[in-house]
């Protein structure tokens, strides 16, 4: 047994029992976690591994910068458009291209449609079943469910006892057929599930409502970007012509009928996050009022680049202000500059890459970043290269790099954005957080402050719900601005003055930043002679899921698991709860795709 103090203030103890969960399911991509638990089944060491690699950054070298968005959009099947957006922003930054106002607003709407959709799917379809027990919902009294629904969200129309009875009957048929389908593989007999049956039935009902509506909101992408989940983008604007009086047959995708349809979907989204998603998270969270684990790095270091300006090119109008908080000091927000070579760097001391002889422990700014794979297990790893039984965290142990801000590991994501915005006093965010916490405390009979409630697993999940609703509000505001701009006679959607590479400088470099659903996303590009010389993506799940760095600082996933008690280590509900609150995307983190459909949780204990 060894006890290690990390420079960023965590105590790691690799004695006791080692538990392996591989793969972590209900996420995008392949991820493994190994933890050590003590005699009381409390997690004392955590090791997060990204287990596959594809190398998109290598594939991009030598290609046309105008094509990069279409490649990087395929990094992921979830946050697709975020990568396309970061890419066109990086190229436009390098070539000094200013896009038309319509394109600026249409991109903002597409960005937030993606965020809203991603947040809703994350909560209902990937995370809720860590808290909600669909089998227990069968025991619910539909009248009690109706009463609960009307208490937690009086404005949601679907609240009658008959409605909940119908859903319960559907669910009963599922269970009696022995085919739980989407609800298979849960630890439904685990004592960590605390909801009364009526709350379980309410949440399962909304699982189904969310499943229905998520296919509606993405229609906005199919109108503005031609298709979903990989809508079209272009350097210089959007590939979407405006002709207000045109009809579809005449080849004008954006006419008044389509704009009215978009408005309707944005309003429906707004109502869903207001009347269903946010109230559900508050109500479910209140039953888990004692589950204040999982803070980890969110109690100390947080980062976001800032995004969603109301005025193009003016970061002072960012609706997510961004910045960095260190050491839990909410009073001091450090500005962040993604161009500064001293600020954002990636380390590979514990990642399966090489920076060259004698450079093992250095950090590289993404403009100078390298992606040279070097897969080797450490001396104390167990198993084989293709069947790892235990990783060796003293050596290289992940395909994910370790990004740092001035050497500090930071948590990124909606929670980081919300703590930053709250600390900066953004009025919308402050009102939302105070209202949500007021309702939480009233239901739970607690008096938690933002500082107590937010840096936790439940706080992370709540911040994501609040952000979805803020995104819905922003989409409606951006829509109004778009209509006003079109009404003023501006129909431009693309600036093609620098489309021809002959107009480009011999060398150029740029950075594109996006507030992606899981946190701050950056793409860095270097262009030489009209081709991509270097391209690096530093992705939210890389920040959160990366391994240790040269100094031994641990990242957000590992930090969040420490100190969490497990009710039954054979059923790692608590590990799933904690990690799912970040919604890990290892496809993004390592730019990989899983080649198979392996989704069964396999827990190995030794
Ligand atoms: Ni593949 Fe992503 C987001 C990006 S990764 S989901 O959000 O960028 O963390
Ligand atoms: Mg990368």
Automatic annotation (TrEMBL):
<protein>
    <recommendedName>
        <fullName>Uptake hydrogenase large subunit</fullName>
    </recommendedName>
</protein>
<dbReference type="Pfam" id="PF00374">
    <property type="entry name" value="NiFeSe_Hases"/>
</dbReference>
<keyword id="KW-0479">Metal-binding</keyword>
<dbReference type="InterPro" id="IPR029014">
    <property type="entry name" value="NiFe-Hase_large"/>
</dbReference>
<dbReference type="InterPro" id="IPR018194">
    <property type="entry name" value="Ni-dep_hyd_lsu_Ni_BS"/>
</dbReference>
<comment type="function">
    <text>This enzyme recycles the H(2) produced by nitrogenase to increase the production of ATP and to protect nitrogenase against inhibition or damage by O(2) under carbon- or phosphate-limited conditions.</text>
</comment>
<keyword id="KW-0560">Oxidoreductase</keyword>
<keyword id="KW-0533">Nickel</keyword>
<dbReference type="InterPro" id="IPR001501">
    <property type="entry name" value="Ni-dep_hyd_lsu"/>
</dbReference>
<dbReference type="InterPro" id="IPR050867">
    <property type="entry name" value="NiFe/NiFeSe_hydrgnase_LSU"/>
</dbReference>
<comment type="subunit">
    <text>Heterodimer of a large and a small subunit.</text>
</comment>
<comment type="similarity">
    <text>Belongs to the [NiFe]/[NiFeSe] hydrogenase large subunit family.</text>
</comment>
């Amino acid at each position: 047994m060894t006890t290690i103090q990390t420079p960023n203030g965590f105590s790691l103890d690799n004695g006791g029992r080692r538990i392996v969960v591989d793969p972590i399911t209900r996420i995008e991509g392949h991820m493994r976690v190994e933890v050590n638990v003590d005699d009381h089944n409390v997690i004392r060491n955590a090791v997060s591994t990204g287990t596959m690699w594809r190398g998109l950054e290598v594939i991009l070298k030598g290609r046309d910068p105008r094509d990069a968005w279409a490649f990087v959009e395929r990094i992921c099947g979830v946050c697709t458009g975020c990568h396309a957006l970061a890419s066109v922003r990086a190229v436009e930054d390098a070539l000094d291209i200013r896009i038309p106002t319509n394109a600026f607003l249409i991109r903002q709407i597409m960005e937030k449609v993606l965020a809203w959709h991603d947040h809703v799917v994350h909560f209902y379809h990937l995370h809720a079943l860590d808290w909600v027990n669909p089998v227990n919902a069968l025991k619910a009294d539909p009248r009690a469910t109706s009463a609960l629904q009307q208490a937690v969200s009086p404005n949601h129309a679907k609240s009658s006892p008959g409605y909940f009875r119908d859903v319960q009957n559907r669910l009963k048929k599922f269970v009696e057929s022995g085919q739980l389908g989407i609800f298979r593989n849960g630890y439904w007999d685990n004592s960590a599930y605390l909801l009364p049956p009526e709350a379980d039935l309410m949440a399962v009902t909304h699982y189904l409502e969310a499943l229905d509506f998520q296919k509606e909101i993405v229609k906005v992408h199919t109108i503005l970007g031609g298709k979903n989940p990989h809508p079209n983008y272009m350097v210089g604007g959007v590939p979407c012509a405006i002709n207000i009086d045109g009809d579809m047959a005449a080849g004008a995708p954006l006419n008044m009928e389509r704009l009215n349809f978009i408005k309707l979907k944005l309003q429906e989204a707004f109502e869903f996050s207001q009347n269903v998603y946010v109230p559900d998270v508050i109500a479910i969270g209140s039953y888990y009022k004692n589950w204040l684990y999982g803070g980890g790095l969110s109690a100390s270091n947080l980062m976001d680049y800032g995004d969603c300006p109301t005025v193009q090119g003016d970061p002072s109008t960012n609706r997510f202000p961004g910045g960095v908080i260190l050491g839990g000091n909410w009073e001091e927000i450090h500005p962040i500059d993604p161009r500064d070579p001293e600020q954002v760097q990636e380390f590979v001391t514990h990642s399966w890459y090489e920076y060259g002889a004698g450079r093992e422990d250095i950090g590289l700014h993404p403009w100078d970043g390298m992606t040279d794979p070097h897969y080797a297990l450490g001396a104390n790893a167990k198993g084989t290269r293709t069947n790892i039984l235990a990783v060796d965290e003293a050596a290289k142990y992940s395909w994910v790099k370790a990004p740092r801000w001035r050497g500090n590991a930071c948590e990124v994501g909606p929670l980081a954005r919300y703590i930053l915005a709250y600390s900066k006093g953004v009025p919308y965010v402050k009102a939302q957080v105070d209202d949500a916490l007021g309702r939480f405390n009233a239901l739970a009979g607690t008096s938690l402050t933002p500082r107590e409630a937010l840096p936790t697993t439940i706080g992370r999940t709540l911040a994501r719900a609040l952000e979805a609703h803020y995104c819905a509000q922003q989409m409606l505001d951006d829509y109004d601005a778009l209509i006003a701009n079109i009404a003023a006679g501006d129909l431009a959607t693309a600036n093609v003055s620098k489309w021809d590479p002959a107009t480009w400088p011999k060398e150029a470099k740029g950075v594109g930043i996006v507030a992606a659903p899981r946190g701050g996303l950056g793409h860095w590009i270097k262009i030489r002679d009209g081709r991509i010389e270097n391209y690096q993506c530093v992705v939210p799940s890389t920040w959160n899921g990366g391994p240790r760095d040269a100094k031994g600082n641990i990242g957000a996933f590992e930090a969040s698991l420490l100190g969490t008690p497990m009710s039954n280590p054979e059923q790692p509900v608590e590990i799933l709860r904690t990690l799912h609150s970040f919604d890990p995307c290892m496809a993004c983190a390592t730019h990989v795709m899983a080649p198979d459909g392996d989704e069964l949780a396999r827990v190995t204990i030794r």
